[in-house]
Amino acid sequence: MQKLNPLYLFLISNNLIRKIAKGLVAAICLSLFIYLYHFGVRNIWVYTILGIFSLFYYLKSDRSYRFFFGFFVGILWFYWVPFSFRFFGVDYLIPLAVVGIGIFYGLLFYIVLYFQNVWYRAILLFFLPYFAPFGFDWLNLRAAFVLTPLNISNIGYALIILSIVLMVHLKGSYRLLSVLVLIFSLLLFPKPEAIPSPPIKIEIVSTDIPQGMRWQKDNTDIIENNFKYIDEAILANQEVVILPETAFPMNLEYDKNLVQRLLQKSKSIAIVTGAIYITEINNKKETFNSLYVFNNGRMQRVDKSVLVPFGEYMPMPLFLKEQLLKFLNIGEFRAGKTPPIDIQIGGELFRMAICYEATQEKFFINSPKYMIAISNNAWFTPSIQPSLQELLMLMWGKIYQTMIFHSSNGAESLVLIPHLEG
Questions:
Q1: Which of 25, 195, 378, 400 could bond 410 through an S-S bridge, CB–CB 3.0 to 4.6 Å?
Q2: Of 22, 29, 203, 355, which residue is the catalytic one?
Q3: Which pTM value belongs to this model?
Q4: Among 16, 23, 40, residue whose Cα is nearest residue 386
């Protein structure tokens, strides 16, 4: 009689393959809305049905495969995070980092889905975005309902979860109560009025400069292209032109002639752009990721205050941080200390945000009517990262009724409108 392979026996006896397959299917259900958005699907009923079904599947899922559920959710949502390693010569670490991301979220789901009780799961589902590794809070399932008629404020999202809990918990005709909860939510939160566009003409620039080219010593072509965009906007009688994050990949204020050129152009058009700002603080050179506004011959600077963990700073103990920065041969950005800032342009106030900041709730406090956001997505493309970023910006924009003018390098630049258009 042939002896069976011990590994085969282990897999069969533990139903491991079945658990992995079920976890993958569940993760696909919870992630599909991102990929549909990425490939251009915009039907509100598709997102409504898929959003409800995915949360239903989440609450009802069997605890036996919860680790694999989270493992594949982590990968499907965030496989792109270590793509920046390509630019530091450590590409070989990307697969290891992707697996590490999967393991983290696998352990997270192992905890939040530990009990089969649907009420326990519902409460943890509501608070899931607050389980944020190093402050990275992009795992937010409210985003699944951005393109639906459902309200996603705290109360609105709680009512969505309650409706699905009743659908899971109740039997027979009593399940109709879940539909009544959704109807109540629609009546409680009527569709808000559309936000009027600002009474000024805005040109949003989209660039596609590979990340590997942006930090070359000779960036003359990049700089002159920026002025070409500015001149084209002036000729088109635009009143504001928005360029992406670090559109000027240099210490902008160090080049006085360049600053003077921008100040001169700003007498014809308001210019919003990203650049680097380097200064000395306590005898140490500090680098800031900054947004500049040149308007009517004046310059204003806003330093990025919410940095991307691992991308812009290392959220680790000092001795580990120093070793890792040395290994990667990179430095860190310093966080600006200013709160969200509004700047007046053409008689309208605009909230200013740099990339990751535009996905953070604190940047939407006091419900600003308009936001200018600038990004550099070339670190992570090609991937779903720009689409997930857009969904999260739309999510907070929908909750706080904020229209976002988003300029990006490496992804589409567009106006994000927080209401359904039909």
A1: 378
A2: 355
A3: 0.92
A4: 40
